[in-house]
């Protein structure tokens, strides 16, 4: 029978109302037989990532509190997805937006933000995540702009408690859920979801993941902070890693709540190359297109699966789409030109051949 769709049964007043309600999708070929693995595909958000949720809530919470005035400029430091989400929200609501970003993050991200009307100010790679953060702060102070402060704001974990966590509760209602797997950028996802799971599904184990060469949480070394909870210095266990959007060079205040309140059960490390391989596998074997951090989370979920008891159900977060990594190692070896095999296919019939 031909598949049929029914529409959403409603009309939307703004693109912003389409944020959230992302699907949890079963993995059919890559998971071992004794477990069931689902992925929550945040690429279904209108801006293509999990950060649409936070961007929307930062702006709406600030509108509600009066911290953001009509027409006031918004400024934020971001590795990309928050900037894209904020650019979407600011465009839809009519706020000017300035983003500060380390020069090493993918070029697609800058161009996407500029396409959505944001100004993007680059900061030197030597000054890492703290450099882009301090630049945003300087600009906010000098110009009286609204600083979104994704790494400290309560609006971050709150939105994951009220949306991501609720969606997981609804979708797994009456079903087993043994493990929830996530990495962290700000920690908003894991902190917000863990509030819900601890309260309502205490049997679900929360697995936190971080890059094997930037194992700040595992190091046990506390983050130095200012009185406002901002990082006062780069964390000593940090090293540059290829999992964009994960693990800045400090432990964010938003994540600190999950660390302090027992918001996770186990911490697993994952490497850059295995993360990239896992993202490619998801595309090739499941048709699921996600970025490097999605690969990292999925690779972690497979480590959990290896040791999980028979029948266990695992949910892994896939934070964004792979499309914003065309210029990164995720696409290394994916060429624009025809391969020998493709040329042989072209020559296998007489017509329509490229010259040369
Ligand atoms: N992956 C990617 C690609 C991201 O952009 C982010 C957010 N920076 C994350 C994962 C982590 O999400 P969170 O900030 O909620 O911890």
Automatic annotation (TrEMBL):
<comment type="similarity">
    <text>Belongs to the cysteine synthase/cystathionine beta-synthase family.</text>
</comment>
<dbReference type="GO" id="GO:0004124">
    <property type="term" value="F:cysteine synthase activity"/>
</dbReference>
<comment type="pathway">
    <text>Amino-acid biosynthesis; L-cysteine biosynthesis; L-cysteine from L-serine: step 2/2.</text>
</comment>
<dbReference type="InterPro" id="IPR050214">
    <property type="entry name" value="Cys_Synth/Cystath_Beta-Synth"/>
</dbReference>
<keyword id="KW-0198">Cysteine biosynthesis</keyword>
<dbReference type="InterPro" id="IPR001216">
    <property type="entry name" value="P-phosphate_BS"/>
</dbReference>
<dbReference type="InterPro" id="IPR001926">
    <property type="entry name" value="TrpB-like_PALP"/>
</dbReference>
<keyword id="KW-0808">Transferase</keyword>
<keyword id="KW-0028">Amino-acid biosynthesis</keyword>
<dbReference type="InterPro" id="IPR036052">
    <property type="entry name" value="TrpB-like_PALP_sf"/>
</dbReference>
<dbReference type="Pfam" id="PF00291">
    <property type="entry name" value="PALP"/>
</dbReference>
<feature type="domain" description="Tryptophan synthase beta chain-like PALP">
    <location>
        <begin position="16"/>
        <end position="320"/>
    </location>
</feature>
<keyword id="KW-0663">Pyridoxal phosphate</keyword>
<protein>
    <recommendedName>
        <fullName>Cysteine synthase</fullName>
        <ecNumber>2.5.1.47</ecNumber>
    </recommendedName>
</protein>
<dbReference type="InterPro" id="IPR005856">
    <property type="entry name" value="Cys_synth"/>
</dbReference>
<dbReference type="InterPro" id="IPR005859">
    <property type="entry name" value="CysK"/>
</dbReference>
């Amino acid at each position: 029978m031909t598949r049929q769709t029914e529409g959403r049964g409603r009309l939307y007043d703004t693109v912003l109302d389409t944020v959230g309600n992302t699907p949890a999708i079963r993995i059919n070929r890559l998971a071992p037989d004794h477990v069931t693995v689902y992925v929550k595909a945040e690429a279904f958000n209108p801006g293509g990532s999990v950060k649409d949720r936070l961007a929307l809530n930062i702006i709406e919470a600030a509108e509600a509190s009066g911290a953001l005035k009509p027409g006031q400029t918004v400024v934020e430091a971001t590795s990309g997805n928050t900037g894209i989400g904020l650019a979407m929200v600011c465009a839809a609501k009519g706020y000017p937006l300035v983003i500060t970003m380390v020069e090493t993050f993918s070029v697609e991200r800058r161009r996407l933000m500029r396409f959505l009307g944001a100004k993007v100010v680059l900061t030197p790679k030597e000054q890492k995540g703290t450099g882009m953060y301090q630049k945003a702060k300087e600009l906010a102070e000098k110009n009286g702009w609204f600083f979104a402060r994704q790494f400290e704001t309560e609006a971050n974990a709150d939105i994951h408690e009220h949306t991501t966590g609720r969606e997981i509760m609804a979708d797994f209602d009456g079903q087993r859920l043994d493990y929830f797997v996530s990495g962290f950028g700000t920690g908003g996802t894991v902190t917000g979801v863990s509030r819900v799971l601890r309260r309502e599904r205490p049997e679900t184990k929360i697995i936190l993941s971080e890059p094997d060469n930037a194992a700040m949480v595992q190091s046990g070394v506390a983050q130095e902070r200012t009185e406002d909870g901002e990082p006062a210095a780069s964390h000593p266990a940090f090293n540059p890693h290829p999992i964009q959007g994960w693990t800045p060079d400090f432990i964010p205040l938003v994540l600190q709540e999950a660390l302090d309140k027992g918001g996770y059960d186990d911490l697993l490390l994952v490497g850059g190359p295995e993360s990239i391989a896992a993202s490619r596998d998801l595309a090739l074997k499941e048709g699921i297109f996600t970025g490097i951090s999605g690969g990292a989370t999925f690779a972690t979920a497979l480590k959990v699966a290896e040791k999980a008891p028979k029948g266990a159900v695992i949910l892994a977060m896939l934070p964004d789409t792979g499309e914003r990594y065309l210029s990164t190692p995720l696409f290394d070896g994916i060429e624009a030109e025809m391969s020998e095999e493709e040329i042989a296919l072209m020559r296998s019939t007489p017509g329509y051949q490229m010259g040369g």
